[in-house]
Amino acid sequence: MKVELKAGQRIVFIGDSITDAGRDYGNAYHLGDGYAHIAGSLLMGRYAELQLEVYNRGINGHKLKDLADRWQKDCLDLQPDILSIMIGINDIWHHRSAGQPIDAAYLAEFKKTYCRILTEARAENPDLQVVLLQPFLLPIPEDHLEWEQELQPMSALIEDLAQEFSASYIRLHDEFKELVKQVPAKHFTIEDGVHPTRIGHGVIADRWLRLVEPAVND
């Protein structure tokens, strides 16, 4: 699926700390310092004549449940035309830190919640264009390789939802796995294997922008 730009559209990037990237919560228009800032700024610059509006509503540490709890305020109330979601890695991280790997029941509830918020967003705007980003982690530290046991089924259900809702799906984990075959993982994330460096954010922004169709003037 491609993202088609039109005049006056409102784009919302939403998710956890990877999307947040240090944004100023007191400034509704602040895009942070990560991929949302890079992609959003380039979109507004490349297609200045379309007068696009771009918002970042990532919040550090949030899991899917936290995102669902603020869905009305941080998504629906903004009335997006294009909605980009990256969420899920904290669900795995927090459970792993507590010594409780995610099980099938948790994944089933995860999918139910994700489906609900997407349904609500489409009910508000049937023409809403949606971009779902695959959660990712790199093998630093090496024990992150074990986390793939949960990441793989989570990614599969998110991809299923992308198909169900005719959304674009960006396979970020798969993309980074290919990149680290040629370039050390430390170039893409800090030492936790999750939070991107400037290069990592650049990769995410680049993959997002590849979805964009040439702008259409109304």
Using the alpha-carbon principal axes, give the shape.
globular
Over the alpha carbons, how many angstroms does the gyration radius reach?
Answer: 17 Å
Number of strands: 5
Q: How would you write the strand order of the largest sheet? A: 2-1-3-4-5
Distance, first to last CA: 21 Å
What fraction, in percent, of the residue positions are helical? Answer: 40-55%
Biggest sheet architecture: 5 strands, parallel
Q: Beta fraction of the residues? A: 5-15%
Summed up, the helix count is 9
Detail the poorly predicted runs. Answer: none
Q: Mean pLDDT across all residues, rounded?
A: 94
The topology string of helices and strands comes to EHHEHHEHHEHEHH
Instruction: Specify the structural class.
Output: alpha/beta
Q: What do these coordinates show?
A:
The protein starts with 9 loop residues before the first strand and ends in a 9-residue tail after the last helix. It has 218 residues and is an alpha/beta fold. It has nine helices and five strands. A five-stranded parallel β-sheet has the order 2-1-3-4-5, sandwiched between helices. The protein has helices at residues 17-20, 35-46, 64-69, 71-74, 89-97, 104-124, 144-164, 172-179, 198-209; strands at residues 10-15, 53-58, 82-86, 129-133, 168-170. β4, α7 and β5 form a beta-alpha-beta unit. The model has no long low-confidence stretch (mean pLDDT 94).
Short description:
With 218 residues, the chain is α/β, with parallel strands linked by helices.
Keywords:
218 residues, alpha/beta, five-stranded parallel sheet, 9 helices, 44% helix
